[in-house]
Amino acid sequence: MTKDIEAIYQAELKQADIDHHTPTAGAMTGHIVANLVVLANKLQQAKWYVNGPSSFELRAQFDTLRQEAVQQRDELGQLLIAENQVAPTTTAEVTEYALLEEDGRNKYRTADWWVDEFVHDFDKENMFITRAIKLAAKEDRPALGQFLTTLLGTNNQHIAELQAWLGKTPRAGLDDEDDD
């Protein structure tokens, strides 16, 4: 039995390497799942450590966003498995596939910094989501594409709300033309 498990796992690793060099919807969605894990951790940290006059409001908002990220990760992982794909489930896989970054120093950041950081995190997630949507369409995976399209809309709404909190328009500082 142990030998069978090792053979299956080695085949999974080989396929994952292939899928990440020639991206598939499943591989790209694995990055999204990993980013959701990191996002949930960052939101927890922010909830615990945010300070200042808006801390009560932000703690509630960060907790809502954290709960949503955990639920999205779970649903997306289940969808990947239903699509006969593999979801990242270990810390090593999350570390390898996530683009979002954590840092223990962040607990000392300002409320404005946290909000701006989450704006950029949702925007980074959207980069993977838009790629995965295109790949899902190409691979005829409509259920995956539908879930990802909804996730993209949800992230865009969060970006707009967080940017408004900062007194900015939804895409301010995110698009190339805004950086000029």
Automatic annotation (TrEMBL):
GO terms for molecular function: ferric iron binding. It holds the Pfam family Ferritin. Residues 32-171 form the Ferritin/DPS domain. InterPro entries: Ferritin-like, Ferritin-like_SF, Ferritin_DPS_dom. Gene3D superfamilies: 1.20.1260.10. Coiled coil: none annotated. This is Stress induced DNA binding protein. It comes from Lactobacillus selangorensis.
